[in-house]
Amino acid sequence: MNQSTIALLRTPPYGSTIAREGLEAVLASAAMEQEIDLLFLGDGIFQLLDHQSPMEIGQKSLRRNLLALPVFGIEQIFVCHKSLRDRTIAPDQVQIPGVEVKAIRQPGALIAAYQCVLSF
């Protein structure tokens, strides 16, 4: 049976390891040929921005993980339109080469369509 899975990425990129662990779990699942979709919402939206100097705060950039998404067969991601708007982030600020970014207005309806929901 093919189980549909979505990963909710809700935490900011720095300050804890949850964001990195979430992206690594998604990449590991994709490497095992499991289909998994991603929804960035809340402060997880900040993971998609190209932070120039995370090393200055003693953190590794998540950008490499995001750039690896198409290599692992993830060619689209979802972002919450309201989360972008609330954080004054324009949709064109969250571009990842090789990945289509789809802003959605009803994340609850999207999540309800999946059998398995992972939350990071």
Give a written overview of the molecule.
The chain has 120 residues and is an alpha/beta fold. The chain is built from four helices and five strands. The protein has helices at residues 18-31, 63-67, 81-86, 107-112; strands spanning 5-9, 36-40, 76-80, 100-104, 116-119. The chain has a five-stranded parallel β-sheet. Helix 2 (63-67) links the parallel strand 2 and strand 3. The protein is globular, with a radius of gyration of 14 Å. The two termini are 25 Å apart.
Question: How is the secondary structure organized here?
Answer:
Elements: E1 5-9, H1 18-31, E2 36-40, H2 63-67, E3 76-80, H3 81-86, E4 100-104, H4 107-112, E5 116-119
Parallel strand pairs: 1-2, 1-5, 2-3, 3-4
Q: Which key terms come to mind for this protein?
A:
five-stranded parallel beta sheet; 120 residues; single chain; alpha/beta
What proportion strand?
A: 15-25%
The dominant shape is: globular
Low-pLDDT regions: none
- Compute the CA-based radius of gyration: 14 Å
- Percent of residues in helices comes to 25-40%
Strand count, sense and barrel status of the largest sheet are: 5 strands, parallel
Brief write-up:
This protein has 120 residues and is an alpha/beta fold.
